[in-house]
Amino acid sequence: MSGLVVHDVGVRFGGLVALESVSFEVAEGTVTGVIGPNGAGKTTLFNVISGFVKPSNGSLTWEGKPFQPRPDQLVRHGMTRTLQGVGLFTHLTAAENVMVGAATSRKAGFGSALLGLPRSDRDERRLRTEAIEWLERLGAADVADRVAGTLAYPVQKRVALARALISRPRLLMLDEPAGGLGAEDLGPLAELIRALPREWESPCSVMLVEHHMDLVMQVCDKVVVLDFGKCVAQGTPAEVQADPAVAAAYLGAEVPEESALTEDEEATS
Ligand SMILES: Nc1ncnc2c1ncn2[C@@H]1O[C@H](COP(=O)(O)OP(=O)(O)OP(=O)(O)O)[C@@H](O)[C@H]1O
């Protein structure tokens, strides 16, 4: 087991228990979904793994070693996280945004240029070529030189994904990648997520927090279900769909099929 192990993690915010004894594994080369009703603790879990929230108890293991995450060290440890929105620099071009994603893991280049530091032009040219290659893989090379703030939202999301992937993470944390996308964008997104651990030159495991149930069930090898901070079920998509505890977590109703859950969730988001 050389992926991520979350062991007995608990988080308290004052008197509020946001996570309690949460344990699961993200096996190398797999897609793991984290689902649960609003306030279940999904974002808190991502915040623990990326070092923004210190757990009150429990531990993490990453690639076989004890792991105490720090946000500024994530890329160095081979992890990246996308944000719920897109979080692009709206005044920079798409290619420049992707270059920023690499800058944190390189010695010279666009990051130093942004900060006004001396840099190597050759490094910057190489970085730009690489950024455009990632945009190409995500079907967004045609917007490389357009200012990010002017791009359609689904295209911005692709650029944000290219920015996360250019650092070649071994674990990619996707926070609501389907949020704000139309039905026509979901098929290509699902294909892309499935391809990440298997087909790309630098394969990575994926953790996915997502309300869009169709997407979760389509792309995940394993699904972890949180409710009021507790892990109430985990297993294959079919197993969690059949689990009565999951039905109980979602409004005490049967686990809705297809997009019905998404509509409920979106209404309460
Ligand atoms: N910094 C914080 N301080 C206090 N309480 C917090 C903090 N962050 C989260 N919480 C609380 O912890 C609980 C879990 O929140 P969290 O955002 O992790 O849930 P979630 O499953 O991501 O919800 P959503 O689907 O609505 O994004 C909620 O009750 C929330 O109000």
UniProtKB/TrEMBL annotation:
Domain ABC transporter, residue spans: 4-253
GO molecular function per UniProt: ATP binding; ATP hydrolysis activity
Keywords recorded for this protein, A-Z: ATP-binding, Nucleotide-binding, Transport
Pfam families: ABC_tran (PF00005), BCA_ABC_TP_C (PF12399)
Record has ATP-binding as a keyword: yes
Record keyword ATP-binding present: yes
Entry GO CC: plasma membrane
Gene3D superfamilies according to UniProt: P-loop containing nucleotide triphosphate hydrolases
PANTHER family: ABC TRANSPORTER ATP-BINDING PROTEIN (PTHR45772:SF4), CONSERVED COMPONENT OF ABC TRANSPORTER FOR NATURAL AMINO ACIDS-RELATED (PTHR45772)
Name recorded for this polypeptide: ABC transporter ATP-binding protein
